[in-house]
Write a structure and sequence with these properties.
alpha+beta, GIY-YIG endonuclease, single chain
């Protein structure tokens, strides 16, 4: 294909370093952002005529300028690429237009008698954040389930400070009335910590602790507290019975599924916590001729860059070129090792098949449950 003299000169002088490249049209608009271990080699491949994707000839025919940003490491290039895609939303990149914020639950243990607060954007303020949850409905259902088991206060700060007598929530045993001193700070904090343990997927450990606590309370003749602990155990066990066990290893895993038909791609992630299937999120439909590997790679970066919790293991349906650096980036976000893999057999392959079936259901339904997004 024909190239301008400027592009020829750019390809000749392109650095061989790791970094990010930005392809621009004659007006300076960013058309595509990419990263590479060897910038010169990667950029030259676009103009060699060997890429069979239909969009590539259209892309390179519009490119008039190419800018390079050299980085020290592949991880720096990955982060920079992701930030530039979010900033410019280039036409030829895969971009998931899922602009709504994920909802989280916030707990500030520094406050006296803290509550579970619903927030849109987690901040680095020392509080504990749980989630995220894909919808306000999911959060409401979670809080509705938690309240009778972990009777924490739900009132706002102003109401909490001015209340002189217990409200109806106390009368129906859905709150311990810390506002009027019906529970000690120590006892309240213990219940709050139990709720946080449960929400983090530590149901089995929590049940073990509760059983030991119930025995100790009964032995010390604190029968009312022992009865409350017993009721908590029963409620949690009933909830766990309703959840499907999908992994005997009792691990926390995110599993991504992908279905591709006629130039459109449907993707989703299913959440496995403590070996149990606890939820699913569907992403907006992507319309692009980029391959499944490029789409999954972009999805991982854009999804986990939104402040969502990162599990120790992520299963994907296709191998991705930047697997090693993606693992490094995710491990840094989690604060512990993260493995990204495409399982070929066994229990984890069954989980992947489940995610793939969920993605196919989205295709068969004809649209994503979210507003359809387009990434070209």
């Amino acid at each position: 294909m024909s190239m301008t003299d400027e592009i020829k000169d750019t390809l000749r002088k392109a650095p061989r370093d790791v970094g990010v490249y930005l392809m621009k049209d004659g007006g300076g608009r960013v058309l595509y952002v990419g990263k590479a271990k060897n910038l010169r080699s990667r950029v030259r491949s676009y103009f060699g005529g060997n890429d069979s994707r239909p969009s590539i000839p259209f892309l390179v025919s519009k490119v008039r300028h190419i800018d390079f940003i050299v980085t020290n490491t592949e991880k720096e290039a990955l982060i920079l690429e992701n930030n530039l895609i979010k900033e410019y939303r280039p036409r030829y990149n895969v971009y998931f237009r899922d602009d709504k914020d994920y909802i989280s639950l916030r707990v500030d243990f520094e406050r006296p008698f803290p509550r579970l607060e619903v927030v849109r954007r987690p901040e680095k303020d020392g509080a504990v954040y749980l989630g995220p949850y894909a919808s306000s409905t999911a959060v409401k259902e979670t809080l509705h389930f938690l309240q009778p088991i972990f009777p924490l206060r739900t009132c706002g700060e102003a109401e909490f400070r001015r209340r002189k007598r217990p409200c109806l929530e106390y009368e129906i045993k859905r709150c311990l009335a810390p506002c009027v001193g019906r529970v000690s700070p120590e006892a309240y904090r213990r219940i709050l910590e139990d709720a946080v343990t449960f929400l983090r997927g530590g149901e089995r450990r929590l049940l073990s602790d509760l059983r030991r606590r119930m025995v100790r309370e009964a032995r010390e003749r604190r029968f009312e507290e022992a009865a409350r602990t017993r009721n908590m155990i029963v409620a949690i066990e009933r909830t766990l019975e309703k959840q499907r066990v999908v992994s005997e290893s009792r691990t926390n895993i995110d599993v991504f599924g992908l279905c591709r038909e006629e130039g459109s791609t449907w993707t989703c992630v299913i959440y496995v916590r403590d070996g149990r299937l606890v939820g699913r999120k569907a992403f907006p439909t992507v319309r692009s001729d980029m391959g499944p590997a490029a789409i999954i790679s972009s999805l991982l970066k854009q999804y986990y860059d939104r402040g969502v919790s990162v599990p120790p293991e992520v299963l994907i349906p296709v191998d991705i070129e930047d697997k090693a650096v993606t693992e490094e980036w995710l491990s840094e976000k989690r604060g512990g090792k993260v493995t990204v893999k495409r399982p070929l057999r066994g229990e984890k392959k069954a989980l992947l098949d489940m995610a793939l079936n969920n993605a196919r259901q989205l295709f068969e339904a004809g649209k994503s449950p979210h507003e359809s997004g387009e990434a070209t």
